[in-house]
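Hi C.,

You asked whether I'd gotten around to modeling the 107-residue construct. I have! Everything is below, sequence then structure, no commentary in between.
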Amino acid sequence: YALLGRWYLRGGNGNGLHSGRFTISAINTPKIFPSKSIPQGFSITVKAFSTNIGLVYIGSTGADLAANLGYPLTPNETKTLLLTNLDKIWLMVANANDGVNYIWEVR
Protein backbone atom coordinates (compact mmCIF):
# COMPACT_ATOMS: atom_id res chain seq x y z
CA TYR A 1 0.00 0.00 0.00
CA ALA A 2 1.24 3.44 -0.81
CA LEU A 3 0.40 6.32 1.44
CA LEU A 4 -0.39 9.44 -0.56
CA GLY A 5 -1.08 12.37 1.72
CA ARG A 6 -3.87 11.08 3.95
CA TRP A 7 -5.27 8.56 1.43
CA TYR A 8 -4.21 4.95 1.07
CA LEU A 9 -3.83 3.49 -2.40
CA ARG A 10 -4.33 -0.25 -2.45
CA GLY A 11 -3.71 -2.87 -5.06
CA GLY A 12 -6.69 -4.85 -6.29
CA ASN A 13 -10.34 -4.92 -5.38
CA GLY A 14 -12.09 -6.56 -2.48
CA ASN A 15 -13.66 -10.02 -2.74
CA GLY A 16 -16.93 -9.15 -1.06
CA LEU A 17 -18.73 -6.97 1.44
CA HIS A 18 -19.35 -7.00 5.15
CA SER A 19 -22.29 -5.04 6.44
CA GLY A 20 -24.46 -4.75 9.48
CA ARG A 21 -26.78 -2.67 11.64
CA PHE A 22 -26.12 -1.19 15.04
CA THR A 23 -29.17 -0.11 17.02
CA ILE A 24 -29.15 1.32 20.55
CA SER A 25 -32.17 1.15 22.82
CA ALA A 26 -30.83 3.36 25.65
CA ILE A 27 -30.57 7.09 24.97
CA ASN A 28 -27.43 9.05 25.84
CA THR A 29 -25.55 5.83 26.63
CA PRO A 30 -22.38 5.39 24.53
CA LYS A 31 -21.92 1.89 23.08
CA ILE A 32 -18.91 0.47 21.25
CA PHE A 33 -19.32 -1.28 17.92
CA PRO A 34 -18.53 -5.02 17.80
CA SER A 35 -14.95 -6.04 17.02
CA LYS A 36 -14.47 -6.75 13.30
CA SER A 37 -11.12 -6.33 11.53
CA ILE A 38 -11.07 -4.01 8.52
CA PRO A 39 -8.32 -4.67 5.93
CA GLN A 40 -5.57 -2.06 5.57
CA GLY A 41 -6.49 0.52 2.96
CA PHE A 42 -10.22 -0.23 3.07
CA SER A 43 -12.69 2.28 4.43
CA ILE A 44 -15.88 1.78 6.39
CA THR A 45 -19.01 3.77 5.67
CA VAL A 46 -21.47 4.45 8.49
CA LYS A 47 -24.97 5.64 7.54
CA ALA A 48 -27.62 6.82 9.98
CA PHE A 49 -30.99 5.06 9.57
CA SER A 50 -33.38 7.09 7.43
CA THR A 51 -36.01 6.33 10.08
CA ASN A 52 -34.02 7.83 12.97
CA ILE A 53 -36.06 10.27 15.03
CA GLY A 54 -33.05 12.41 15.92
CA LEU A 55 -29.29 12.70 15.68
CA VAL A 56 -26.88 9.84 16.27
CA TYR A 57 -23.34 10.62 17.36
CA ILE A 58 -20.16 8.74 16.46
CA GLY A 59 -16.87 9.15 18.26
CA SER A 60 -13.60 7.46 19.14
CA THR A 61 -14.37 6.94 22.85
CA GLY A 62 -17.39 6.67 25.08
CA ALA A 63 -15.96 9.50 27.18
CA ASP A 64 -15.90 11.80 24.13
CA LEU A 65 -19.54 11.06 23.43
CA ALA A 66 -20.52 11.55 27.06
CA ALA A 67 -18.79 14.96 26.92
CA ASN A 68 -20.79 15.91 23.79
CA LEU A 69 -17.72 15.67 21.54
CA GLY A 70 -19.22 13.22 19.05
CA TYR A 71 -19.74 13.77 15.35
CA PRO A 72 -23.50 14.18 14.72
CA LEU A 73 -25.21 12.32 11.90
CA THR A 74 -28.66 13.40 10.75
CA PRO A 75 -31.08 10.74 9.48
CA ASN A 76 -29.73 9.19 6.23
CA GLU A 77 -26.34 10.97 6.55
CA THR A 78 -23.12 9.01 5.92
CA LYS A 79 -19.54 9.24 7.13
CA THR A 80 -16.64 7.26 5.64
CA LEU A 81 -13.69 6.39 7.88
CA LEU A 82 -10.29 4.67 7.45
CA LEU A 83 -9.98 2.44 10.51
CA THR A 84 -8.41 -0.93 11.33
CA ASN A 85 -11.33 -2.28 13.36
CA LEU A 86 -15.02 -1.56 13.73
CA ASP A 87 -14.54 -1.37 17.51
CA LYS A 88 -12.73 1.95 17.05
CA ILE A 89 -16.19 3.55 16.67
CA TRP A 90 -18.55 4.43 19.51
CA LEU A 91 -22.19 5.36 18.97
CA MET A 92 -24.68 7.30 21.08
CA VAL A 93 -28.30 8.08 20.21
CA ALA A 94 -30.66 10.81 21.36
CA ASN A 95 -33.75 8.65 20.73
CA ALA A 96 -34.29 5.02 21.67
CA ASN A 97 -33.86 2.47 18.86
CA ASP A 98 -32.10 4.87 16.49
CA GLY A 99 -28.90 3.62 14.91
CA VAL A 100 -26.72 3.13 11.86
CA ASN A 101 -25.92 0.74 9.03
CA TYR A 102 -22.29 0.07 8.15
CA ILE A 103 -20.45 -1.51 5.22
CA TRP A 104 -16.91 -2.22 3.99
CA GLU A 105 -15.13 -4.40 1.44
CA VAL A 106 -13.39 -7.62 2.48
CA ARG A 107 -10.48 -9.46 0.88
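If it helps when you're writing up: Strands lie at 2-4, 7-9, 16-24, 31-32, 44-48, 56-59, 71-73, 78-81, 90-93, 98-106.

Thanks,
B.
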